[in-house]
């Protein structure tokens, strides 16, 4: 699917902030996702968005079965003239592909093979989208099915991980894992930092890198902006950056992959620029930590606080 846009050649080599996963793979720390902003139905808009993101210097695309954008993710790479190997692709196995079917070994395999067909290649990283993708209480079995596909070559070279997993869900995987998970993608920003610190500690013990979706929630979705607003503005003003760029820098400096999105060329340029901006100072990072921990505000509510209690903090001060 080719987007209707003439496009100049995208530089193959760009400076990219990266993190090292525990299996030795290098992951670009700034990712562009096509699961939000009206892109999740796929089509030309998702291809064009991906092209623009790559043009802006982003080298990590985030898709999922439920976004219906797997083919568009690959098409976006093709449309830029970049090679598939120039870009890191994260994909997710979502609930919708099972349509009420049990998650048997055969059905999980079929779902994954459908994704490989749509992508036209293997993703670099494949995540279980959330804890309801496996049948209830069957996270270990589901993990084993994925491991078997890595071991038989179907998913050879693909790193495995999950998304929206709480400590107890991670322990369920670790109780059986022959292939260690490398990433947990969760809603992550300063307003959930106090809640997620124990999760980060557990993940650090198991070598699991955090990836942040919704990293711009404090400025986009909190009703007032909360206590971070003046802090982000002050730090931004000191560096000539907008609050979004400050938040994204904070995220990657925490050792977390920032999975953001945009359809605006101007914002995409700012997101791509994170790759080459100087770090925030330790004082600035600490000021953001402290302002963030004054409240607890989560946008994607779902199950993350079920049996993993959120801190007793207000939603605003
Ligand atoms: N695993 C999961 O369960 C899960 C859940 C949700 C999302 N995700 C993934 O994470 C991706 C990002 O999620 P998200 O949309 O919640 O991320 P986000 O980073 O919190 O928000 C993205 C929004 O930020 C805006 N933006 C970007 N740069 C900006 C700037 N400089 N100033 C002001 N606004 C700016 C964009 O709007 P403009 O278009 O106007 O720039 C875009 O709509 C999704 O597409 C998806 O791939 C995963």
UniProtKB/TrEMBL annotation:
Keywords, sorted A to Z: NADP, Oxidoreductase
Pfam family, one: Aldo_ket_red
Record's keyword annotation contains Oxidoreductase: yes
GO MF terms, alphabetically ordered: oxidoreductase activity, acting on the CH-OH group of donors, NAD or NADP as acceptor
Residue span, NADP-dependent oxidoreductase domain: 52-291
Family indicated by similarity: Belongs to the aldo/keto reductase family.
Descriptive protein name: NADP-dependent oxidoreductase domain-containing protein
Organism: Cutaneotrichosporon cavernicola
